[in-house]
# Entry
Amino acid sequence: PVTRTPDIQDARLKLPVVAEEQRLMEAIYNNHIVVICGATGSGKTTQVPQFLFEAGYGSVGSDTPGMIGVTQPRRVAAVSMSKRVGDELGDHGHKVAYQIRFEGTTNPDTAVKFMTDGVLLREVAEDLALRKYSAIIIDEAHERSVNTDILIGMLSRVIKLRTELAQEDPKLKPLKLIIMSATLRVEDLTMNSRLFENPPPVIEVEGRQHPVTVHFARRTTSDYVEEAFRKISRGHKKLPPGGFLVFLTGRNEITQLSKQLKAAFGGLKTAEAPRVRLTASEAPTEVEDIEFGDVDDGDADDMDSLPSEDEDEEADEDEFKIEDDQEAAPMKMQVLPLYSLLPTKDQLRVFEPPPEGTRQIILATNVAETSLTIPGTRYVFDCGRAKERQYDPVTGVQSFEVGWISKASASQRSGRAGRTGPGHCYRLYSSAVYERDFQQYADPELLRMPLEGVALQLKAMNLTHVVNFPFPTPPDRRILARSEKVLHYLSAISTTGRVTEVGTAMSVFPLAPRFARILLVGHMHGCIHYTIAMVAALSAQELFLPDNQAVPALAESTTEFRSNSDIIAETKQAEMRKRFNEVHKNFCYLDDRADAIKLLQVVGEFAHEPFEAWCDNHFVRFKVLKEIQQLRRQITDLLRNNIDGFGNLRFEDKLDPPMPKQVAALKQMAAAGFIDQVAIRGDLAPTPPETHRPPRRPIDVPYLPLTPLVEADEADRCVYIHPSSPMSHLSVQECPQFIVYSHLQKATQSANVDKKPKTRMHALTDIT
Ligand code: ADP
Ligand code: MG
# Structure
């Protein structure tokens, strides 16, 4: 029996899921697989694990002593939900733990384990029967992240295996699988006989939703950050108390808007942030963390002309005329960002109530769309866009584009306003755009990305014919074929598609197959420690602060800067920029044309001074470097324990700079993992592209990929150096003949901009 505090008890009784406890537990008792659909806020994540716990799952001495595993697509959710369920479980709270990639609180007492779906995937690879668990809950299945989809496919087999094993060994009970979704779109799971032979029962739980009034904008502007600023500013003055939750697409936008709001309304610092231990994160980086290069592609004109101030005011008068329309009392404003690269202690600040008389304004990415409950939110401002991964199955070009969300997402977002009482959602787009451009549901992520990593993992588990894997939605065969080609060229699979010894070795590492391959050839010229550091760094995203952000961010931390005159401020800014350029130049002192070597240098220097202050002074992210450090350690251990010839390998944290011979070797190795991704300088190519005028900047020099991009437009055949690459500082003449790139990226800054952006190479190294 669980003893809960009276207010927790009261709150639980109001949740729709709690009313369904009996029906749900009966379904789970009678079926191995159960699907639960319930609107966000109905109590799925917090309550269902507790039902299982109270029914004896995860309890020593019961019939089902194995743990209850709960997966989340996002790190913040795994950490914060474990905390919440721990609190709700009162005297059993210590039995709830979380595990994310490098960090966890599990111990032998753990009965309920929250984890990212990536963590559970690794565990399935280690034990296909998942003997440690008696029940698995896959949460947020509607998000259809790659890991979720793969997990569901895997678990359909795990369940069968466990049922067979249980017949031989009565001590081992069958495994229960509960799939939870915030939407009703679950036919991919239930009506998919390859996945589940018999359709699992679907338990629908009604939502508990207060009415939310949706306001569409009269027109859609492409500068939605500016538009958000305008709407929030006016809304803050006019609307009755209640928190604002603002959906944007990424960190840059959040920082920009946060500064604007603080400048206009005065920021307010909160008291001590809650302490939760969390230092590392799950790879890969969540998509919304990926920022576009700051490329000057010319002016991106709005499609629509800007409205006049008056027109706007008039529109706002309509929208903000709410309830009995008395003007809201003037309030202070507390602006809090929420995105996954933010240090976790800062992320968790959104759960704290704001000070008396203050309006909390949370600027969030998709993180806040479903999994997290942010108390006090009454007004949602939705830009209607999200950063999404796109992938061209033919050319293999990956892009992270800002695009329209789905109607389902828009409805999730507006629903966030109706959690505690009636609310309002201000959509920064018109109903015409919504009707015309919004898909009903977003495509599963699995259909939008390269799959060599997934294919290798499956093959390493002897699922040779990846097409036969029970994907909830099968991926494009061309993408699968492409991934087989890459794996074959990396020697990870044989001509018949079977995993080779090399491939098995590669699959041990939590790295993309290309990086794992580089690692396995990395011992030449005594390079192994450098190679480890290099692939760890290449696997990380967003190590560098962009200059547009680094400069004001530093300036802001000195209060003296703000109060002094503009002239001093400008001088400081110029100094900062100079320092930024110097720092970046110094990182390239070993080699001025290889991004890979520059990254290695950063990691090497950080190891000697692993402090936040050093990172601030060098315009790099502490959080990311800590993770790279942990990954280096992990890779070293995996090499020692799994790969012949590394039995004596010890982790070496502080390294001397590599010798020139080693730098050359490292560049060669990096190139070897990507030899199918080489581009030749346009004017030196057999059929040079047409150019209207000679390029003036290195980032305008056209290159042609040796595997041509199949695109209609002549101009689209070309790719260009990314401005973040050291090579962008060469002269046009110095631009190398050949460049190896890790991936191609095409960014559209806004869904409304007509102009086609350039495809840019994330360069690794030149080839000499
Ligand atoms: P679902 O998973 O169905 O979206 P949850 O179980 O996450 O729902 O949340 C159910 C309810 O529990 C929320 O609506 C909220 O009232 C409460 N709750 C959840 N997390 C918290 C929290 N961190 N702080 C306060 N209340 C919370
Ligand atoms: Mg939930």
